[in-house]
Amino acid sequence: MNAEFFLYILVMAGVTYLIRMLPLALVKREITSPFIRSFLYYVPYASLAAMTFPAILYATDSMISAGIGFVVALLLSYWERSLLTVALIACAAVFVVERLL
Amino acid sequence: MLQFEKLKTAGCSTVNFSAWKRGVRDGIPICLGYFAVSFTFGMMAVGEGLAVWQAVLISAANITSAGQFAGLPLIVNGAPYVEMALTQFIINLRYSLMSFSLSQKIERQAPHFHRFFIAYGVTDEIFGVTVSQPGRTSPAYSYGVMCVALPGWVLGTLCGAVSGNLLPDFIVSALGLAIYGMFLAIIIPPAKKDRVVCGVVICAMLVSAMFRYLPPLRGVSSGFVVIITTLLVGGAAAFFFPIREDRAEEIADEC
To answer: What is the span of the domain harbouring residue A16?
Structure first.
């Protein structure tokens, strides 16, 4: 059982690490293509937005508390509060809503 | 303090120490969010019959939430190793896009070997805070984030594995929102200043919602949804609204 388990971990972690490491290690020179530079500029916004919505609606025990947490986080981000402030107050909002429900 | 000594002996200046400290600060919300998610992972792993040390080892070796949750039943059921490799590849391939983006973000003069260590900590969240830094980033910043965030992942797994009842459900539920709140804090302020970024954010959310709710698209795994959405929306934005270099730097400096 143990040998098998370590082999699973090795496969899992090996594949995951290679995916992360290869682009970082191989793409060292500065990319000059305007299209690729523009694409890379938009990557964080597209990927983080796609990961956030609609997943955020299912992040807590109920969609109501998650929805309210989402709105609170949106407003605080719009007012440009820090990462920690937004994260903590959004969690607090979920906590309060779930107590009230 | 230990890290400070290490940085010093590595020949790094106080500039790097302040980058490291900024990383530590930005790592705190990630740590909280990780704790909640990996707590659940620890509980599930032990529930499925793994030992506590096995759950912790999986977390320490992988640092990937979706990949670990998907890998768990494969281990328990003794699935073929090829299936494990393919599953991890599909779910985690999005990290290669992030790494590609980071390859242009790390300080040019930073020694190459740092990239092998930074790669270990390329997660959705650590990528998110790193790209939110203005200009190029020092590896010290990444190490700062990693040394706060990664223990949150591993300790959360340990606590969840040791005692499923240590944290009440409602705390775990509330902390589940931390990571998404952080993502919004990263993408919304630049979206306010730039109409194209705003469009990218809204379109990406709509496309990913389509994958969630439209019947023919529903079967696509969450990792692939991120890849397809990023290629589609990011590619379209780059094609129709290529950035002018000066403008990109301006926006980066403002954020």
So the answer is: 2-100
